[in-house]
Predict the 3D structure of the following.
Amino acid sequence: MAVTEADSEADSAPSFASAASSEQAFLASDGTRVECQSASPRRQSLPYFPALDGIRGAAVAAVLAFHAGFSWAVGGYLGVSTFFTLSGFLITSLLLAEHRSTGHIDLRAFWTRRFRRLMPAALATLALVALFGWLLADETQRRNLAGDVGAALAYVANWRFVLSGKSYGELFSAPSPVQHFWSLAIEEQFYLLYPLLVFWLGRLTGFSRRWFAWLLTALLAASVSLSVIGGLSIDRIYYGTDTRAAELLVGALLALLIDRRRIAGRIAASVRLQWVLAALASVALVGCVILWATQEQQTSGWLYHGGFSAYALLSALIILGAVIPTGPVRWLLARRPLRNLGVVSYGVYLYHWPVFNTLTSARTGLRDWPLFALRLTTTLLIAIASYRFLEQPIRRGQSVVGVRPLAVAPLVAGAITLAVIAASFTAPAPTIDFAAVERKLAATTNNAEAPLPADDSGSNAPPRARIAVFGDSTAMLTGFGLAGYAQASGKADVVSGWTGLGCGLSRYGNRGEGPSRGPVLPECNAWDEGWREAIDKNRPNIGVIQVGPWEVVDRQLPGDRWRALGDPVLDEYEKSEIRRAIDLLQAVDAEVVFLNLPYIGAPEGKDVTEFRGNAADPARADRFNQLLAEVAAERPGVHIIDLKGWLESSGEDKRLRPDGEHFSEATAYEVAERFLLDAILAIHEQAWRARQEDSIDR
């Protein structure tokens, strides 16, 4: 007998005993039915478990809610993990059934079925992505489009996202339109390698179930160990095939376990055992729902230290609850709405991400539930049409509009590749090239460094200003403008300070806002060391400090809960970090000049809340500026320049800060020339005269 895809789906739920028989079969992981064809021409339909489709429906619903940004679905990404475990279970069940029926595994037939099932909708999605790249993508998305789509076509997107990393500028761009292909890549790599493993195991051991179990257990242990003690980053663990393989292997072990006639027979014969398993499955389902609602992706550290594997055990219990003959899990997940969603879940997952990236709040004027309703309706319409008119005909070996799709698939893939390459090469240059600015700033300040001034305590004029700039990327651009204008005008020297991309003053723990969530970068946690080294080397007499949105995002300090500015605990912590910055500069008797925080904006055409998340809340900027004023009031020698007020009164904030946060290279120079350098020099002179008067009085 050979395993094939079926033309229709049965609605009846067979008994567990029949599923455990020699004609066992389950749904394929992508939603297809499975049949077994005997030696006779007659095809025999095998059991269908509607609740397995319900698992798919529930899992993809969790992913949709997560990507919609609902606060009650912050852990919805775990639905992908459930798909992994279900895939491992179903593919192993198919391979076991095929070997039991035929005595061997037909690898070519297996891979052909996977190709026919998965490639058509994937190519259709990538064609839509290419169109998106031409019409709607921002410059960063377009520049990365060729590499991203190429990796998606080759099913190695997960490794591209691991190895390519992200430039700082990409934190402020929209995500890749094929970001979701990372999970499909892991599944495809599993579909490629795992049957080979099973095939060769069968050759070597006569398909011994005991050897199979030992091998799967060893691979599972290796995968979990790599996550727990491998010293890998969060992104490496999240995207890695080897680190996520554990979730697939848990499903495979479940399939191997219930394939044993003795175990399957015991479950089928004992109503009490069935209800015990049903109760465990119910607890597991409740546990998964709780995790979907509570476990934020970048801040649930336990998930990256074996937690994904533990979650896979919950998924395995739910799968078991879906195939036993009784219990609330089987009943609930077999309801028609979940079941129908599960049937088209592959297309829904594929199409939803480019749809969500296209139908944004900025483009539609909608938010929250109305926006989600529009996105969901559009996704379902595309997925249902794809399922009926593209995926199903190809799966059955039929032509689509008179064309054999498998024959032209390479041509379609080639056309998509050419289109995205063209889109990539026509992408405009980035508004701000942070790496280039960093290099230019270093060169400018090194050239401007002057010898330390001689003692001029008897002079009637203040010593020459020796300015160093400290802070994050906003300070980098501001410092670039100051250094350029100071050098051109000869009014002051600007020496090297320390500016760290993504580094605010508030260190340690986790932080979260629109496009970026996760732990504070290690180099940011050590900003005070970088500051001290620059201060000791260059001895500035004026330290200019500027920080941006990283001070106003949500924060989770080590061992603490999430807080926002306005919370007394976080307010006091922020003030302590401000004081730390002041102490470093005042240790060399430098005047400390803070630039207050303007409201965070967004590039033209982007919705500020969607683009920058909670960092765009004006109340947070106001609160930070208030904390800054409180510290300045208690510390002599600390001054604040009202950059926010100057930008608002200029009426040119959008032009001067084109991305809503940073000056460009040109406008940084303009701001230094029109306002900033003179404001700093006025503080310098005023502070010097105050010290002179204080000296006379004494």
Q: What stands out?
A: The longest strand covers residues 493-499. The chain has a mean pLDDT of 84.
